[in-house]
Write a structure and sequence with these properties.
This protein is an alpha/beta fold. It has helices spanning 32-36, 74-91, 106-117, 164-176, 195-205, and strands at 8-12, 20-25, 47-52, 99-104, 124-128, 150-157, 180-187. It has one domain (8-205): Alpha/Beta hydrolase fold, catalytic domain (Rossmann fold, 3-Layer(aba) Sandwich). The protein has 5 helices and 7 strands. It has a 7-stranded mixed beta sheet with strand order 1-3-2-4-5-6-7, with helices on both faces.
Length: 212
């Protein structure tokens, strides 16, 4: 089992010049650079971008639906790395309500797991094909109040890695913590990110006319 060293790719504006920040979390087998490449399609001209890199290009070794103990200590290490990244952004002068999260696949699962364990008023959350982590969800892990933070959760049906039933279960947990969830299930969609999903993320989560 492995833990994750701090290795964060930064892009976009420096925090001192940015109106907001986004933490972009890559999927299994991918890289921080690959998830940052999405930024050109997103409304992030005013944002500082932080993309942590997983050791061995994987945040945890097994399916997100495996028993949590099988994915330890990698899972806790990954969650700690995200938490440390949030603290770094706050120290650089960007408040929680101006911090956004985006992930794909394993990165989407990790994003949702982090924000739901630490529910607060964030800028927004974009989970392209993901759900909360564990064979069964331990509801004691999920605490806080999203204060109507907007979240977008998408998936395919069927998806080879993320069952629609787990997406639906995750949405119930998040809404129970006062998250404002928009979800989309795309019949027959392969395990990828469609332009329609990117457009939704821009329209619903990354609107640039909001008050900070």
């Amino acid at each position: 089992m492995y833990t994750h060293e701090k290795n964060i790719i930064k892009a976009g504006l420096p925090a001192s010049e940015a109106k907001r920040a986004i933490i972009m979390i890559h999927g299994r087998g991918a890289s921080a650079e690959s998830i940052v490449s999405l930024a050109g399609h997103l409304n992030l001209d005013d944002a500082a971008i932080y993309a942590p890199q997983a050791s061995n290009h994987s945040w945890y070794p097994y399916s997100f639906m495996a028993p949590v103990k099988e994915n330890q200590p990698a899972l806790d290490s990954a969650l700690q790395l995200i938490g440390n990244t949030v603290l770094e952004i706050v120290r650089e002068g960007i408040s929680l309500n101006r911090i956004y999260f985006l992930g794909f696949s394993q990165g989407a699962c990790l994003s949702l797991e982090y924000v739901t364990r630490n529910a607060a008023k964030y800028g927004g959350v974009i989970a392209f094909t993901g759900g909360l982590v564990g064979q069964e969800l331990n509801l004691d892990n999920y605490k806080g109040n999203f204060e109507r933070t907007p979240l977008l959760i998408t998936t395919g049906d069927p998806d080879p890695h993320v069952p629609v039933s787990r997406v639906e279960e995750s949405i119930k947990v998040i809404e129970g913590l006062n998250g404002a969830v928009t979800s989309r299930v795309y019949k027959g969609r392969p395990h990828t990110i469609q332009m329609e999903e990117i457009n939704l993320a821009n329209d619903l989560i990354l609107k640039t006319d909001g008050e900070f």
